[in-house]
Amino acid sequence: MKRIKTITTRDMNKSKMTGGCGECQTSCQSASKTSCSVANQHCEQRKDK
Amino acid sequence: MTMIHTYRLNGFNIVVDAASGAVHSVDDVAFDIIERCDIVMSDSDLSAKEFFADKEILDAIVADIVSSSGISREDVRETLDDLAELSDAGQLWSEDPFEAAADEIKLKQSVLKAICLHVAHGCNMDCEYCFAGKGDYSGKSGIMSAEVGKRALDYLVENSGSRRHLEVDFFGGEPLINWDVCKEIVAYGREIEKKTDKIFNFTLTTNGVLIDEDVIDFTNREMGNVVLSMDGRRETHDRMRHSKSGGGTYDSIMGNFKALVDSRTEEGAERRSTEYYMRGTYTAYNKDFCSDVLAMADLGFKETSIEPVVADPSAPYALHEEGLPKLYEEYEKLALEMLKREKEGDGFNFYHYTVDLTGGPCIYKRVAGCGVSTEYLAVTPTGDLYPCHQFVGDDDMIVGNIYEGITHPEVVEIFSGANNIYTRDKCKDCWARLYCAGGCAANNYHSNGDINKVYEFGCKLHRKRIECALMMAVAREEW
Predict the structure, then answer these.
(1) Tell me, what's the ipTM?
(2) pLDDT in tens, B252-293
(3) Looking at chain A from residue 14 to 33, which residues have their Cβ under 8 Å from any Cβ of chain B?
(4) DSSP letters spanning A4-44
(5) Distance (Å, rounded) from C-alpha B399 to C-alpha B397?
(6) Which string of b and e fits B143-165 if b means at least 16 CB within 10 Å?
């Protein structure tokens, strides 16, 4: 596409089929402790690959 | 309802699709076309599919853009075709397929996987802004015994179902004033690992005063992450983080933090993890907090984090709405400086800008949120259970204890039932929902008395941080 560049992001629809294992880190156990965020966390399944 | 978010930052035109989380970097022409399409779609109440099938509307947009910008008709047509293609692929103006499944998704958060162990409700420091009532949580001081700590681990294992990775954060007050018990609890956890398939990730949050060689050696061997509380510049730090006698603490902790981090990150050293975070708090006194993060980086700390203070609005250091423009400016300044340093080979990480776009969480986590009271509980020195560390000390929020389990299911229900990004009053209309997962329930509760009424001030800052983080990802694509 000439004028548009799409940055690769995780396909959320696909993740509905494969996700939900719950092995990832709990959001608040990181550096924050006061403001929940998920974007900076890793999927445990994908980390292993 | 479909939703996109468009913004310009650092010379980039960025478009985020709310329902899919897709991110696009576009040129000025495409940005203009996208904004015009979005206005027409919203005003006419058309779905993207209907919009791109409506020849009359598209012809009008083409004519409008050709006359106002001088771009050729073919060029505009080609861009519209590209937008239609992205829409068909579910990456632009996509419908949200997750709302209907939100309750089912939330049910996945059915077992406990993390506890915040308040090993000490007491502190050897006297920080002005401490949300824990200067460490003792509204006068409920206490030191956790090894017996309570071990039972807390058992409780975690018993309630963790088939989950393998379990997390235990040593928190306080200041956990190092009860260090021997921390070590005993870790040793007990390692014994459990031998008998089960569970894996414990222990973490430590500390003010650093009592860090010594033993602490450094043990945390390197046993802790998956250490969070080191430090506010940046000396004057910032010493203004709020006092010793019990009232003086600043910068000098008494800096050497300790340096020694711990150097040892943890030294090449070839034997340790469980290299993870650590310098974790600061900014207040109304240092709205220029970018300088504090850079001060951490200049000292050689590569993993940084700084959070807005959580405070009663009447506190002199509390942050207020009118301060937002300055805070936005600081977040942008930080992002630009980080990119510059990264390019020069001297990069560092900032917690909120370390966005993993391809390897980040699945939709379950993004919809269900932080897991407060379902996946995560805080344990007090006497073994009482609270939904999270920020509710500790609030008698109305106690959910049970490690011996009897959940004795107040009605409190758990507040969090486990209608509590996801679609039950919060403003989240489902927010473009950033899949990047933040609905924010902090405790912040919502403490500011509005309801976990589903969002803490708007925090949301505004969070959206700015996400904008900056996505801009950085876009910028890296251009290198």
Answers:
(1) 0.91
(2) 999 999 999 999 998 887 788 889 999 999 999 999 999 999
(3) 15-16, 18-20, 22-33
(4) EEEEP---HHHHHHH-----SPPGGGSS-SSS---TT---H
(5) 6
(6) bbbbebbbbbbebbbebbeebeb
